[in-house]
Structures are given as structure tokens and as C-alpha cells.
Amino acid sequence: MQAVYITSYMAVTACGHGVEPLREAVFEQRSCLSPARLIQPDFTIYTGEVDDPLPSIQEALKAYNTRNARLALAALDCENEAFRSAVSLAVDSFGAARVGVIIGTSTSGIYETELSYASYEKNGKATEGFDLRKQHSWVATAEFIKHELQLLGPCYAISTACSSSGKAIAAGQRMIASGICDAVVVGGVDSMCQLTIHGFHSLELTADLPCTPLDVQRQGISLGEGAGLLLLERQQRESGQLSLVGYGESSDAHHMTAPHPEGEGSKRAMQSALQAASLQVSDIDYVNLHATGTRLNDQSEMRAMASLFHLNTPCSATKGITGHTLGAAGAIESIISLLALEYQFIPGTCGLNTIDPAFKSHVVSQPLQDQHISYVMNNNFGFGGNNVSLIFATQSTQKDMPYA
Q1: Is 115 helix (H, G, I), strand (E, B) or coil?
Q2: Whether the Cβ atoms of residue 181 and residue 100 lie closer than 8 Å to each other
Q3: Is there a contact between 24 and 43 (Cβ–Cβ < 8 Å)?
Q4: Residues near 81 by beta carbon (within 8 Å), at least 6 away in sequence
Q5: Which of 131, 133, 152, 370 is most buried, by the most CB atoms less than 10 A from its CB?
Q6: CATH of the domain at 301
Q7: What is the 3-state secondary structure (H, E, C) of 275-308?
Q8: How far does CA 30 lie from the centroid of its chain?
Q9: What's the mean pLDDT in 254-274?
Q10: Is residue 93 part of a domain?
């Protein structure tokens, strides 16, 4: 029975490089969505793109040179390399072989693969330096992070669509609980590419204006990109450390893309997280919803919420700020949940004008400051019914988690 502590976390999003720009945008409820720029399709779409310049990959790791890897590198290097420094402390404490890497992604280096195929079609040869295994494969970004940080522990990727990095966080906890690792770099990285923009558009899931999750007039998602990294450790580094105290996973197996209409899989994931953390629904002070802004997704999750939680439990959606970062959403929105705990506030629902009257839960429209928050749940649900719910706590309120 041990706590898993979050000793550092970092994000790169459309809000900017670092946790501070993300915190400010959430505090101010400021949308960072704008018309697509990196890829400009022949239809209107708003995206949450990272416009700030990305760092260059060192020469020794050039084979991993993708937008995905550069987003991850930006997270390692921003805010005076705070995350990189925390990993170094973990290596000093446990040894490089005891620190693992688990990264969730749904795109990996697909953007570079698309550029390479376009080059082949035009010039008869792939782009110079293109490496399918070290750029396109799901594990490529995880491997890059491992080599960049000179870690020697287990390294793998999880790709379960929009729940990928939430599941990576849960997997990191299991790695520590099983004794395989003493610390794990977990999180997610996803970047813009033609596949996701055109794929979601073909499913008629994209909005031609900034997304408005939970709104009665919601049209669909706004795609985003970014990186979210968390360092999980067996022991705390300082008093007041935040921690991961529970997780729940489930699979709907209802449909390839549509969620279960009553949110049965979503509900099971939330129930499992509560059980793992030995908590009641009344203990949860805030739920960060997956809410993407599509009609079916929001409806499914809110039915699950209403059937499980008290109707006065505060909940909100934050994708109107960052966009839906797909495989990175679980990590980035977990970081927003950690910010809620650290700064004792409840994020609002950016873009919400009129709540869908079918939703009965207490949806917070504007940020609420000076709250008393001990436990926060973060939900992420992916295609195929791949669901995960995570529960985070302040060090003063955490309970021992029963590991299987």
C-alpha cells in the first residue's frame, strides 16, 4: 500500500511553452484556438496549434526528428528545464535503470510520414533522413525521450486514441507498484497531421468554429496538439506533494467510434477509479470531463455522470482552451487537474454559452477561485470505448491505494 507521487509535471500546448501559460489561459478562460495554419484543408477548421518555435533535436538523435519529438523536447526544456532537472534527481536517487518511460500517442510521427509520401509522389524519393521505425512507429517518441534523458528503464508506448496518455499514467503507477520501477516518466504527445484533420472531418465530427463542449448548439471538436509529461515516483520529494491515488479503465466494445449511448463504459471507469482509491462519489470535489464538443460524446459522458455522481458535484470541460489534443489529452488535462489542486480553483467551460438542457450535472461555466479541493477526477474516453478515469489528491488527503 503505497502512494505514487507526482514530483514534476510540464506541458506544451497552444497556450504556450510550459505550465504557466496553460495555467494563465485556464485562469482567464482564454481560448487558444484559431484557424488551421500548419495544415490548411479545403474546409474551415479551428485548431489548437503550438505556434512558438520548437527546439532542434541533437545530432546524435536526428533519426527521431519529428514534430512529435520536438514537442516532447520543448516540454523537457521549458521553464528552466524544470522537468529535466526532476528526472535527474530521480536518476540520482534510484539509478537510470530504475526510471522508465511510458508515452501515449495517437499520431506519433505521422506528419513526417505524410511529408515523405508527398515527396515520393512528387520527386520519386522519400524526404531525406526519413526513418519509419524511429519516426512513424508508436514507440518512437517514447524512445526519443528515453535516449534524451539517458534513462535505462522499461520504455513503451500506448495508443488507444484519446485515452492514450491517461492510460500511460495508470500504467506508470502499475510499474512502480509492481517493483519494476521506482520512477516513471509518463504522459502523452500528439501533433497535427493530415490524417486526423481529414479523418475527423470525414466522420463529421469537426466544428467550423471554436468548439463549444456541453453547449446546446455544439458542432464538434477542434483538434489540438501538444505534450504533457508527468514524473511519477515511489517517494515524495517535498511536503504537500500531489499524488495519483486511483485509476479505472474499461472498454465499451460498443462501436468503432461512437460511445455507448448511456455511457456504460465511462461509468465503469469512474466507478473503478473510486473503488481503487477507496473513495465515495461525495469525496470528489471536481471532475474534469472528457467532453469533446460532439453531440454523442458529450451526451454519453453526461448521462454517465448523472447516473453516478451527485448533481451538485462540480464538473467542467477545458478543450475549448487547448483543443482536443487526442493522445496527449489525458496528460494535458491531468495537468490541468493538478493545477486545480495546487491553486485550489475549479476551471470553467470555455466556449459554453447555453448548457444543453438534457445535462443535469453541475457544469461550471466560469472559473471558480478560492475553492477547497482535495480530490479531482480526470476523464478521458477514446474510440472503440477505451476509457480511463484518474483521481488525483493533495498529499494531506491521499489514502493508500489497494494494488492488485
Answers
A1: helix
A2: yes
A3: no
A4: none
A5: 131
A6: 3.40.47.10
A7: HHCCCCHHHCCEEECCCCCCHHHHHHHHHHHHHH
A8: 19
A9: 86
A10: yes
Q: How far apart are CA 192 and CA 323, in angstroms?
A: 11
Closest CA to 22 of 290, 378, 324, 332: 332
Q: Are 225 and 233 in contact (CB under 8 A)?
A: no
404 belongs to a structural domain: no
Whole-prediction pTM: 0.95
Q: What is the tally of structural domains in the chain?
A: 1
What span, in angstroms and rounded, lies between the C-alpha atoms of 55 and 41? Answer: 26
Q: How far is CA 365 from CA 213, 350, 353, in A?
A: 11, 7, 8
Which has the closest alpha carbon to 378: 251, 282, 273? 273
Q: Is the dihedral of CA 248, 254, 259, 260 positive or negative?
A: negative
The number of angstroms, rounded, from the C-alpha of 331 to the middle of its chain's C-alpha atoms is 3
Whether residue 38 contacts residue 107, with contact meaning beta carbons closer than 8 Å, is answered with no
Question: What are the backbone dihedrals phi and psi of residue 2, each rounded to the nearest 5 degrees, phi first?
Answer: -140, 150
Rounded mean pLDDT of the chain?
94
**What local confidence, expressed as pLDDT, does residue 239 receive?**
67
Cα 393 from Cα 13, distance rounded (Å)? 24
Rounded CA separation 265/255 (Å): 12
Query: What is the structure's pLDDT at 399?
Result: 41
- What is the helix (H) or strand (E) element at residue 86, kind and residue range? helix 67-94
Instruction: Establish if 283 belongs to a structural domain.
Output: yes
CA distance 182 to 139: 21
Angle at 152 between CA 148 and CA 154, to 5 degrees: 105
How far is it, in rounded angstroms, from Cα 170 to Cα 195?
27
CA distance 4 to 33: 34
The boundaries of the domain holding residue 363 are 4-393
pLDDT digits (tens, 9 = 90+) for 74-113: 999 999 999 999 999 999 999 999 999 999 999 999 999 9
| Residue from 196, 112, 162 nearest 380 by CA | 162
Cell matching residue 149:
534523458
Residue in the block written with cell 512507429: 137
Residue 149 near residue 371 (C-beta atoms within 8 A): no
Tell me 110's DSSP state: H
User: Which residues are known catalytic residues?
Assistant: 162, 290, 324
